[in-house]
Amino acid sequence: MNYRVSPKKAIVFKILYLVCSAAVVAYTAYIFIENLAHGIRASLTLDDIVLLISSLISMLFEGAIMGFIVRSFKLPTILMKNLVFKNDGEPYVPGIVLVSVGIAITLAMSVVFFVSAFVTNFVSMSLRAQYFILDVGLTLLVNLLFTLIYFFVFRHESGSFAII
């Protein structure tokens, strides 16, 4: 059985999720503009085209998630229920494990590529590709992290979940 949570708790969760997603979209837009500017200055190579298309797809993906979050402000919706809960409201252990492992992997990947891209270049690939891989890692990290947070914050003791 579903239950209601305090609107304040749900609003705070959604606002934090929206802000983090907006930061990822802004970084992705920066990557896209940087790759486009590089492509205009130098002639476009296949690598530039792949990075441009990939950045655009990543930006559209995270933008769609932001749109879904904004929509959830008007009407309650189940944001990430299917990853961590079964249809009857019981915890879905493989989903929780998958999300937790995903968070650990994407966090490690993001740290490695952040350090390599912004501190010292120790990964042997182009800097723009490192920026993009960092962007992908941040996109996954934000969404998986908020999925796990949703599980712990909005799970009722009876095993049901809150519709926020």
Low-confidence stretches are none
Helicity level: over 70%
Count of strand segments: 0
- Derived from helix and strand composition plus strand pairing, the structural class reads mainly alpha
Query: What's the overall average pLDDT, rounded?
Result: 83
Largest sheet, if any?
A: none
The shape is elongated
Radius of gyration: 18 Å
SS summary, helix count = 5
C-alpha termini separation: 14 Å
Order of helices and strands: HHHHH
Estimate what percentage of residues fall within beta strands.
under 5%
List keywords for this structure.
5 helices, 164 residues, 0% strand, mainly alpha
Task: Give a summary of the structure in a few sentences.
By secondary structure, this protein is mainly α.
Explain what this protein looks like in three dimensions.
With 164 residues, the protein is mainly α. It has helices at 7-41, 46-74, 81-84, 93-119, 127-154. The protein is elongated and about 55 Å long. The mean pLDDT is 83.
Give the SSE layout.
Blueprint: H1 7-41, H2 46-74, H3 81-84, H4 93-119, H5 127-154
Helix pairs in contact: 1-2, 1-5, 2-5, 4-5
